[in-house]
User: Fold this.
Amino acid sequence: MKLRTTLMAFSMAALVSGCQSLNTDALLQSGSQAFKAVSLSDSDVKTLSDQSCAQMDSENTIAAANSAYGKRLGKIAAALGDNINGTKVNYKVYTTKDVNAWAMANGCIRVYSGLMDLMTDNEVEGVLGHEMGHVALGHSRKAMQVAYGASAARTAIGATGGVAAQLSQSQIADLGEKLVNSKFSQSQETDADNYSYDLLKKRGINTAGLASSFDKLDSLDAGRESSMFDSHPPSKERAENIRKKIEADKK
Assistant:
C-alpha cells in the first residue's frame, strides 16, 4: 500500500508541474497507471514489447534476408538458437552506421549493421548472447516496467481497454526508445556477460569472440547514447572477466 501511495504521489506531482490544465480524474488515472507499471503481467509485457518492437521496425530500414547482412545474421542465429527459455526469438538487422544491438522481453532481437561491420561473426554471437541474457534473466522485463512507469508519470493515459489500448503511436515510439536505451546495473551487465559465455559454450561456439567484442567496444567513443557504451563495468574489465573464464576452463 505504501508503494502504491508513493508512486501515485510521484506521478501526480510530475503531471501537475508539467501540465496544470489536467483534471483530478486524469491525475488519479495516471497515478494508477504508474502503480500498474510495477505489476505488469507477463501478457502485458509481451503486448507492449510486441508493439514497441513493431514501432522500432517501422522506423528503421531492415536488411533483407537474402542480403549480405541478412545471410550473416542467419548463420549467427542458427548458431545461437531460436528461443530463450521457451520464448521464440526473432532476429533482424537494422541498416544503419550506428553500433548497437538490443533485445526485448518478447524475444525481439535487433542488431545494427554498423556493429556487424565492426565485428566478426563470432563477436556478434557474443554480443547477441549478452542481449539474450538480459531477456533470460528478466532484465528486459524490468526495463519495460521502468519505461512504462516513466511514460505514465509524464502523461495521463486513459484507463479503459487494457494496456494495449492505452498508448498512442507516439507513446509506443517513446516506449521503444526508452527500452533501446535502457541502462542496466553493473550486476545485470555482468550476469548477462556470464549468460552469454555459458550459452556460447553450450552451443559449441568459440567464447573468445565475446571478449574481443568488448575490446572493440572499448576502443570506440564511450560518450555515444547507447546501452552498449554506457558500460558498467567498463568494457575492458568485462573483456578481462571473460578471458579469466576461458583460462579457468582450460585447467
About this structure: Strands lie at 83-84, 87-88, 90-94, 101-103, 108-112. Residues 1-31, 156-160 have pLDDT under 50 and may be disordered. The longest strand covers residues 90-94.
